[in-house]
Amino acid sequence: MNPVATERAPLRGSSSARRVLPEESTGRSTSPLLRLRPPMLRRWWTDAAGLVVWATMLIVVALWEQHGGVQDLAAGGASALNSIGRLSGLLSADLLLLQVLSMARVPFIERSLGQDRLTRWHRWVGFTSIWLMVVHIVFITVGYAQLDHWNVVSEAWSLITTAPGMLLATAGTALLVLVTVTSIRVARRKLRYESWHLLHLYAYLGAGLALPHQLWTGTDFLASTWATVYWWSAYGLVMALVLVYRVAVPLRLSAQQRLRVTSVQPAGPGAVTVAMHGPHLADLQVAAGQFFVFRFMTGPGWTRPHPLSLSAAPTTHGLRVTMGVTGDDGERIARMRPGTRVMIEGPYGRLHPLVRSRPQLVLMGSGLGLAPLVALAQEAVLAGRLTHGPALMIRRLRSGVDAPMQADVDRLTAAGALQVVDLVGPRSRSGTAWLPQKHGHLPGTEAVRRLVPNLASADIYVCGTGPWVEAVADDLRSAGAPKHAVHAENFTW
């Protein structure tokens, strides 16, 4: 099942394999240089994750039907309005739990689906949950107003001020709406990542504030012993998973690894490379192409999370990331000194060798999206997985002088492990947008076939900004690349 060797064989210093690694990865240590073990991945995990989602939805609908949902719907009038309101509220609560679960970093979910897919699913589930909540509020309020012969405004005020837990639920709903509004792309672009991330954490508080109303007065939550057990268990399980995988596991990992910065070096215009080492790297399970969430303990600002992909194949001699420093918090990172402590969460992401199933390797990246692709190329050499010729790297660059990690690419090329094709120039404003202006007249599928002649026999990894990655991945599939052979990840938050 796992195409990547799990044994950590020493890499001999005279081999071409070792020569593809950067100096900060090989270091000056006299201890053997070992590849780190990749995390476990099982193919059936993806199906299991989907089964969990549909099972919860079916249970919720079954509990609604058992409590007379269909009969009330057929009765019409206020009963039908209340029935629709109850069902939409139940589905909204279930989707809210699934939304929180999707970002709980549960290993089998995260490794099987990958962050890109999870993030899209998280957004879709979140917006759907909010709209269902709005439907729940409107239909329940109108239904009760008809039963009480009140106007809708008076009924809404009465429910908020007199029903047990409703004030808390109203505050929770306001927080969830705030999180939803700030997650819209137009709003997100105006926020720093750190600010948006902090606001996003209020979703947990919003879900918690809504809980008393649901469990104290929700008729479908209290309709039967089975309903009560299901909802309490669902909330308890999700809460436990969040605490374990978002708090306890990262704290334990950071305490175990005790990573410290060993060097901070320029890596091209507006970018630096940060190398790290710790005494127990041999115990860390991570694959090339994955990312960690780093917190650099530099004093003020240390709590800010930085999701960064490894830019070199991980070994017992160190980890390395390459990041832009022109944006949020970049100046603080660029001024870090050797010895700075580092806290980590992870590894995350599905852009790794474990998903490979084909003999040849193609890497397509733009900007700093090349970082994990360089690590993947190095790992392919170290694992001896380039038996069918060198990997093909296609780089999208604004100019020929701004290529990140050029020294790493040169080492791989000199070792005969990499063939490089550069797409240089400003973005095409007509035609195919992911190509430079001078090639924009080419249809995307034709450009893909010209660039990647071995579509049918290659695993293709794509990384860069969101729109660029989505456009390239779509054209790859349209050109005939099998869906399961296209592995895409974007770093646009």
Automatic annotation (TrEMBL):
Cofactor: FAD
Protein name per its UniProtKB record: Ferredoxin reductase family protein
Provenance organism: Actinotalea lenta
Domain FAD-binding FR-type: 254-354
Main location: membrane
Keyword Membrane: yes
Transmembrane segments: 44-64, 124-145, 165-187, 199-217, 229-248
Membrane topology: Multi-pass membrane protein
Places the protein is found: Membrane
Record Pfam families: Ferric_reduct
Highest rank taxon of the organism: Bacteria
InterPro entries: FAD-bd_FR_type, Fe3_Rdtase_TM_dom, FNR_nucleotide-bd, MRET, Riboflavin_synthase-like_b-brl
Keywords linked to the UniProt accession: 2Fe-2S, FAD, Flavoprotein, Iron, Iron-sulfur, Membrane, Metal-binding, Oxidoreductase, Transmembrane, Transmembrane helix
SUPFAM superfamilies: Ferredoxin reductase-like, C-terminal NADP-linked domain, Riboflavin synthase domain-like
Region (Disordered): 1-31
